[in-house]
Design brief:
Elements lengths: L2 H16 L14 E3 L8 E9 L2 E11 L5 E5 L55 E2 L19 E11 L5 E13 L1 H5 L11 E4 L3 E15 L9 E25 L5 E10 L14 E13 L4 E5 L5 E5 L7 E2 L5 E2 L8 E3 L3 E13 L11 E16 L10 E3 L5 E17 L6 E8 L20 E9 L7 E11 L18 E6 L4 E8 L2 E8 L12 E7 L4 E7 L9 E12 L1 H6 L15 E2 L2 H4 L2 E3 L26 E2 L6 E4 L4 E4 L5 E2 L6 E2 L36 E12 L7
Parallel strand pairs: 1-32, 33-38
Antiparallel strand pairs: 2-3, 3-7, 4-9, 5-6, 6-7, 8-9, 9-10, 10-21, 10-31, 11-12, 12-18, 13-19, 14-19, 15-18, 16-18, 17-18, 19-20, 19-21, 22-23, 23-29, 24-25, 24-30, 26-27, 28-29, 30-38, 34-35, 36-37
């Protein structure tokens, strides 16, 4: 029997390998070995990710532990994917070609070479080199792969902090920065030449996502790179969200007898034929449909004048947006079927599909950028024997001038760049309109708002997937005459004499964190903060439209002063979890370690059994489901036209009161008019004494608890006024 001697030798070998052991057959033996190699490891995190003045600013901080052999790898593919590691597990040499083209590994190096200390590139002197590099120049000395992302590598200052055992650890920050056009970042690829970004498309949002991996590599034996390597990897998701919405400002006909009605304008992704799975963010596919109705006693109908009689005119003459007919254009060619409505009236439907090249420069993330233009359609008039045919053919063109249908559309673009540790829901403005649905947002030569003009505000929140589980509820609508664009608290920080409350409910609460010389202070607001506020105005519309997933607010604009000043409108929302969502899943708060114990490497026999010792610190890592309770700010401006001529602001009634006794303020012309032209029943606006609650049938119950299934949202809208204002 030769088995016993071999077994004896094997047990003796294991005893020598792992030390003294009192094991016998039948005992449960721990199959993992505690590894204290990473007990003093620092953190890796993203300190900046934003777009400022059209430039993307992305910054990564790596904490180097002094006097500890280690090497940090930043990459956009998982360390060890397909067996590729930046540091060879058998030799300890560094291989940048085993990382993506946007990694931090920019040079090759052996673990040991002549006239250099063993493991030099894992030492405090050699594991990081400060440098400024170009995106186009060769970024390495010697052989290796070029890297295209980080433009700056800088050693930071030293600092001391305790580890998990209370011992002081000396550390130093390494800062990697990218400060350039986002296009460079957007084109990063992995070792297989695949783009690092994945995208998803919903009704309102294009979301691009990638994952950045931070890997700390340490040698098993600092004196010998062939003894193997072990590492710890953590990761953070990065998001680039492109939110676009079409806002139709007007649709008109050059002939009054032709009544155009818009059905819809749909914005979608455009996929170039060369890259059918990657959308072009500078182009949009648009589907547009509207109806026309004309008098047709003798078979009259309309037809598009010709295939090129469709034009796009940017409102900004310097803008370069245009329709690219070469990228696809579907249009209703020839005469179209007529559906008779009423008495001898022909209604026709017109559907167009085309690609619009957008001249949109994103200057700052989370700030709306508008591309406004007018679509013009030229139509000819025909007379047909049977206009109700699916495709009328027996038709004669009438000898009349062509008519034009004009449709002004604003394509609003908002870009959000964020990492998963700071991702939060955001409120965005969909539309801000006045009398007759005219656009009142600032810019583009739009007119301002008048005193006593009805104003409608439509907002929605992002990202969209939260809307399945949450509805919005408005808890505060406040107006003040101060310019508080830079204040996180908006009108809540204004003196009570300079503000009024148009709406508040019992669930209102809002907290703002302020930093005063390094000291963080939290200021909390609730209903008691509004006890002495004026209630001069009330909302005329206050409801969440769950079908269209937007929140509608309406009010009659009220003068606050005679002078030109800035109005700020501050709204606070909370996110209320839908009953069906509560049944579907409970959302519980949770934390994670940014540095997770995903350890691998070492020589093969040890790699399977290593565990991280217990990382020194826990950086709280949130995801967006934990951030639904965070407040968010939204700022917007519009111009106020001021009190009209021959009127004076009355501080007691908040009204532009006409100076002449024979005149009254008209809510049709928004001017002072005599009794012959003034519609009956008009009077100065009254001061409203009570807070107004929304229609209980249209809003969520005000008795819903604020925790933990609700969230506060905060929005600030700023209103420019020309010619009047003053709260006192």
């Amino acid at each position: 029997m030769l088995i016993l001697p071999r077994l004896t030798v094997l047990l003796a070998f294991l005893g020598a390998l792992f030390g003294q052991s009192a094991a016998r057959f039948g005992d449960a033996i721990e199959d993992k070995v505690s590894d204290s190699r990473f007990r003093n490891m620092g953190q890796a995190y993203i300190s900046q990710f934003e777009i400022v003045d059209s430039t993307t600013k992305f910054q990564v901080v790596l904490e180097d532990t002094l006097n500890e052999p280690e090497y940090w790898v930043v990459d956009f593919q998982q360390y060890g994917a397909e067996g590729l590691t930046a540091v060879d597990t058998q030799t300890g040499s560094i291989h940048p070609e085993n990382t993506g083209e946007c990694s931090s590994v920019i040079f090759s190096a052996p673990y040991q070479e002549e006239n250099v200390t063993v493991g030099y590139y894992f030492s405090d002197q050699g594991n990081f080199v400060s440098r400024n590099v170009s995106l186009t120049d060769n970024q390495i000395d010697g052989s290796g792969a070029n890297k295209r992302l980080f433009t700056s590598y800088q050693r930071g200052s030293n600092f001391t902090e305790p580890d998990s055992d209370g011992n002081d650890i000396q550390r130093r920050n390494y800062v990697l920065s990218f400060d350039d056009d986002f296009g460079y970042f957007f084109n990063c690829t992995d070792t297989n030449g695949m783009n690092i970004w994945e995208f998803s498309n919903t009704t309102d949002t294009i979301e691009f996502r990638t994952t950045i991996y931070f890997t700390n590599v340490r040698p098993v034996d600092p004196t010998d790179g062939t003894k193997g390597m072990s590492w710890v990897t953590s990761s953070v998701d990065l998001f680039y969200r492109l939110n676009r919405v079409a806002i139709v400002n007007f649709i008109v006909s050059s002939i009054a007898l032709v009544k155009p009605v818009l059905d819809f304008v749909i914005i979608d992704l455009y996929f170039p034929p060369a890259t059918p799975t990657i959308p072009d963010t500078k182009k949009v596919s648009i589907e547009m449909q509207f109806q026309t109705t004309i008098e047709s006693p003798n078979g009259e109908l309309l037809a598009l004048y010709n295939s090129t009689s469709f034009k796009y005119l940017p409102k900004n003459e310097t803008a370069a947006s245009f329709i690219n007919f070469d990228l696809g254009y579907d249009f209703p060619n020839g005469t179209q079927q007529c559906q008779y409505v009423g008495t001898a009236r022909c209604r026709q439907i017109w559907n167009f599909n085309f690609v619009l090249e957008l001249d949109v420069v994103v200057t700052d993330d989370d700030m709306p950028i508008d591309a406004t233009g007018t679509f013009k359609f030229l139509f000819a008039k025909y007379q047909c024997n049977d206009p109700t045919e699916k495709k009328p053919i027996d038709c004669i063109e009438m000898n009349v001038d062509p008519l034009t249908i004009s449709l002004e559309v604003t394509i609003q673009t908002v870009v959000q760049v964020v990492d998963s540790t700071s991702d939060t829901p955001t409120i965005q403005l969909v539309s801000l309109t006045g009398n007759n649905g005219e656009d009142l947002r600032s810019g583009g030569g739009r007119r301002g708002v008048n005193h006593l003009e009805p104003v409608s505000i439509v907002v929605q929140y992002f990202p969209e997937f939260l809307r399945r589980d949450f509805d919005l509820e408005l808890t505060l609508f406040m107006v003040c005459k101060s310019n508080l664009l830079s204040s996180d608290a908006g009108c809540l920080s204004a003196p009570q004499a300079q503000r009024y409350v148009a709406y508040s409910n019992a669930n209102f609460q809002f907290a703002v964190e302020t930093d005063n010389n390094g000291d963080s202070t939290t200021v909390t607001y609730d209903s008691s903060s509004l006890t002495n506020d004026n209630k001069v105005q009330k909302l005329t519309t206050n409801a969440y439209d769950s079908t269209n997933e937007v929140y509608n607010m309406g009010f009659t604009n009220t003068a606050l002063s005679q002078d030109r000043l800035t109005y700020t409108i501050t709204t606070v929302f909370r996110l209320v979890q839908k009953p069906s969502a509560r049944r579907r899943r409970a959302i519980a708060a949770r934390t994670q370690l940014i540095l997770t114990s995903s350890l691998d490497g070492d020589v093969e026999r040890m790699a399977r059994g290593l565990m991280a010792y217990g990382l020194p610190r826990a950086r709280t890592r949130r995801d967006i489901m934990e951030a639904v309770a965070d407040p968010q700010g939204h700022i917007y401006t519009l111009t106020f036209n001021g009190c009209p001529a021959n009127s004076t602001f009355n501080a007691g009634t908040y009204h532009c009161q006409c100076d002449r006794e024979s005149e009254r303020y008209s809510t049709e012309s928004f001017t002072c008019q005599g009794p012959k032209s003034l519609p009956p029943g008009l009077a100065p606006v009254d001061v409203v004494e009570d807070l107004q609650e929304p229609d209980s049938g249209r809003m969520p119950s005000s008795g819903i608890s604020t925790a933990p299934d609700s969230a506060l949202f905060y929005a600030v809208l700023t209103v420019w006024f020309t010619g009047f204002l003053c709260l006192l």
